[in-house]
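Trying the structure run again after the queue cleared.
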Amino acid sequence: MTWEILSIIGTIAFAISGAIVAMEEKYDILGAYILGIVTAFGGGAIRNLLIGVPVSALWEQGLLFQIALLSITVIFFFPNNLLRHWQRWGNFFDAMGLAAFAIQGALYAKEMDHPLSAIIVAAVLTGSGGGIIRDVLAKRKPLVLQSEIYAVWAILCGFAIGLGLAKGPIELYLLFAITTVLRVLSYAYKWKLPNKSTIKTASHDD
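Done. Tokens:
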């Protein structure tokens, strides 16, 4: 049940996130559907390729595709005067999608008895793969490749599940909430990982 709920949360969140990005880039309705679907299912497809699950398994998720299409439709036809406020929530939906899919990907790899390294990779790819494809298609620099903290939270999910720190439903929902909050805080307060320029600046200051 936890798996199904996380799948639904992640699908809705990433489908909405992709649709919002498409509208910000002034894509038409077909572009919104494509970007929303790719964001919602791209990470799972990449994960399946790398951990040995047939990509065709995605086509068995008929209900999730319907949920994603419905979510995109609702957002696309939302009244323009209200949509301006909804666009501010794009990062929040992205944070929810990251958390839900990172946990789902880690659980998937854990159930297949993969080692900790594979569980972490599955968490990162499932949580951020769809967002990377979305940003590339929208001609944006992918968040996961910037100094902004993003994939780190998916890595933490992988560690928590791989080490057995989060097993039961309550623990998994708590991990989802913590990951979402950390991601929201990281973009709200502009937490960043060090890059070469910041390291050079710090060394010059010393």
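Residues 2-205 form one domain. Worth checking whether this holds up in the mutant runs.
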